[in-house]
Design brief:
The protein is of the alpha+beta class and 96 residues long. It has a single domain, classed as 2,3-Dihydroxybiphenyl 1,2-Dioxygenase, domain 1, CATH 3.10.180. Helices cover 22% and strands 38% of the residues. Strands 2-3-4-1-5 form a 5-stranded mixed β-sheet. A hairpin with a 2-residue loop joins β2 and β3. The longest helix is centred in the C-terminal third of the chain and has 11 residues. The protein is globular.
Length: 96
């Protein structure tokens, strides 16, 4: 059984990046960082970011990131579900 700890972040494509940032801030997200065209914001929980967005042609969810209990759980999720996530992230916090 794969053990997932929690939702780490959600990544979105948004038509208006500035409006999305203001909307996220209205809900308590802060700590804005921009990197390679991506906006990163964090909430009250642990972790360097929880909301990630980039400018796009449509508003849509691109992906979610989940925290696995162990490296083995991460690798099993990749194998069973075709999940991505091996290697160092280039995002703030540089996790796996």
């Amino acid at each position: 059984m794969i053990r997932l700890k929690s939702l780490h972040h959600a990544r979105f494509s948004v038509v208006d990046l500035h409006a999305a940032e203001a909307f996220a801030a209205d809900f308590g997200l802060a700590g804005k960082a921009m990197q390679d065209g991506w906006l990163y914001m964090h909430g009250a929980g642990p972790g360097p970011y929880h909301y990630v967005a980039r400018q796009g042609d449509v508003n849509r969810l691109l992906s979610i990131g989940l925290l696995a209990e162990s490296r083995n759980d991460l690798e099993e999720a990749q194998w069973l579900y075709g999940a991505l996530g091996s290697g160092r992230s280039k995002a703030p916090g540089a996790g796996l």
